Amino acid sequence: MSKVLQLRSERAELNTKLQALAKIEAEGGSLNAEQLTEFTSLETQIADLSAKLSRAEAAEKSAALAAVPVEEGAQGAQSPPAAGLHGGEGKEQVKGAGMAQMVRLLAAAQGNQQHAAHLAKEGKFGSDVQMALSTVTAGAGGVLVPVNMSGEVIESLRPVSIVRKMGVISLPLNNGNLTLPRITGNTQVGYIGTETDIPLTGMTFGDTKLSAKKMAALVPISNDLLRMSGVNPRVDQLVANDLATSMGLSEDLHFIRADGTGVLPKGLRYWAIPANLVPAPAQSGINLQAIDLYLGGLMLRLEAKNVQMQACGWLMHPRLIRWLQSLRDGNGNKAYPEIEQGLLKGYKYGLSNQIPVNLGVDGDETEIYFVNFADVMIGEDMELVIDFSKEATYKDAGGEVVSSFQRDQTLVRVIAKHDIGPRHVESIVVGTACDWGAGM
Fold first, then answer.
1. What is the DSSP annotation of 416-432?
2. pLDDT digits (tens, 9 = 90+) for 141-184
3. Which of the listed CATH numbers 3.40.605.10, 3.30.2320.10, 3.30.980.10, 3.20.20.450 matches domain 268-376+424-434?
4. 85-94, 163-172, 220-229, 279-288: least confident range
5. Which residue stretches belong to region Disordered (predicted)?
6. Residue 212, burial from CB neighbour count under 10 angstroms (0-12, 13-18, 19+)
């Protein structure tokens, strides 16, 4: 682990203890003498760590700016074969190419950072890739990806992750934490007489607190692909796409339905207040009017709470939208023709197979979400960690155990830290117990 990461981790742990003590007084309690001493000590330790962290970050930034690729023979690096590693001019031609090239070089070097930097130099890869491999610190968890490259990867998740694609707002986490104030009650405004005192009213506030949760995504990559020539936009695009797809699917799984227990983030399903969990009418015997009233009722729950409907949309499993697409009115016309344009009742929809269709007693129910995504925030730790193995095993989509060695694959593990939460919990409505389309 790099010195910067170590200091950030230590400060985050101290801050957690400090917040626990502060919470006692916030809830009406009082600190005893021992707790007051501990509180003061924690404040001092956090201030000291903050000063050390500032100096370490400045030193790391200076090292990155002054870095040059490692020279031949550094730390025992061996000259790579000429074939298959030449990178041409080293210009990135696709989004995420830098990360993809870094992954392929580290995989070729069996995770040896210095050897990978040597390969980058010999293959004439871009200067950013060479410097990144020359300056980052490898730790027990893998190799830290520079912020500029990890930011590019995170941005590339937007068209892949359905939750991100719908317009959620991404914010950086500060030391793994982020507190967002939110208005829980509006100021009361009214008219008064000429000699009447103005009543004292005010807004009430609350906080949405995000804290970094660690997500690990596994990406199996063919060794044949990793052996391809260095700066090849088609190869880099494939690797970048594989990384983005694996991370995006993992994000959607947790951002939508993780229950927030233990190390998990709290997904949209569990942020919704009980009043906004609305059971759907059963498919058997339902008519078009009942369907339309139900969908309108989901929308009304946001409108009735004065939610600004500026970035609202639907999330559902593909089964559900195909069932709605098949509905016809009494004249044989499509009930929702706008589905062809990506809209449902005037709002865009997103489809995800990460929303289950096997819920309920009979195992055929799903959920439909209507959310103001402008109110949903993703707190991001902008540093990714990657690690490699040619011998590890993993489970495929069918649950079968696959050997990387037997398949001639390299398993790439990407670790990211983030959290998700709404500024206003009223901005999320979930249609539950929906068996529409069962049997399709």
1. EEEEEEES-GGGEEEEE
2. 577 787 777 777 877 787 789 999 999 988 888 778 888 776 55
3. 3.30.2320.10
4. 85-94
5. 70-93
6. buried
